Amino acid sequence: MLQVAFAGTFSATLERPVRTRLGIPCDIILGDEAGVVARLSDVDVLITLAFTREMGAAAKRLKLVQVPGAGLDRIDRAALPAGVLLANVYGHEIGIAEYVLGAMLALTRGFARLDAALRRGAWESQWAVGSSPPAPWPELAGKTLGILGYGRIGQALARRARAFDMEICAIRRDVTRSDAEGLAFLGGPEALEEVVRRADYLAVTLSLTETTRGILGKRELRMMKPSAVLINVARAEIVDEEALYRALAARRIAGAGLDVWYRYPRDAGATLPARQPFHELPNVLMTPHVSGWTEGMLEARAKLIAENIERTARGEPPLNLIP
User: Domains in the chain, please, with CATH?
Assistant: First the structure.
């Protein structure tokens, strides 16, 4: 019987939906990423966001490392034993694209602040008596959305942003893999500065690699319009933490929606998500890495992971095989 291990908190959330979709009996193991090492000698399929040298040394009959997400930045590929296959999974692009548009609207229109004020009876609007009306809100229509990383998420976002009558500029590593129809501009990594300068809203949807780590630093943030808003739904480390905090605190950019962070919980209890005090800034929308946490994502990922477990049992290569 196939042995399947789910390692880590996020992987464990998929155990039940994967199990319900399996058409074959399997022995299921749950553990944290460090604790699962001692049990890997009999495991055939490992579902994990991280793969280490310790895991590789302990794996005796491992056939597949299944990443329960798209990112491979915590997978040490050199540690994979010979013959072990690696696969990832998507299904999060619709949820993340919807989140980006929601964050853009929430930040532009100040929904959280208006809600808090009205709960106190304060009308920050043209209906207030005895005070001047606020400046009218800008509309998304006619604004430029810059997308850094025009893959699955970027393309899903662009389709939805076009429905808001936005102009789309994007970059990706290999421009030949994307159709530029409907875009105002599509370029390679060398066009980063052009997109940063043109964007009224800048969405970060890149994979984290050694090339993209810190790609938005002090210099690039200074190129952004003072009225621009940055939305990061990729990996925090793509944007330099201190440079981003200082740009927001000094209002060199208007605001940011941040769903990915520089520090994550390791124990139960409160964990601030960064070294810099982003939580003190009124122009930042903070969410705890939930942009892709939707019913559609869970359904798509559970279905594909179950399929890949069954393919492993049949001796077939997995879907979304990573070369």
Answer: 2-91+295-314 (3.40.50.720), 93-286 (3.40.50.720)
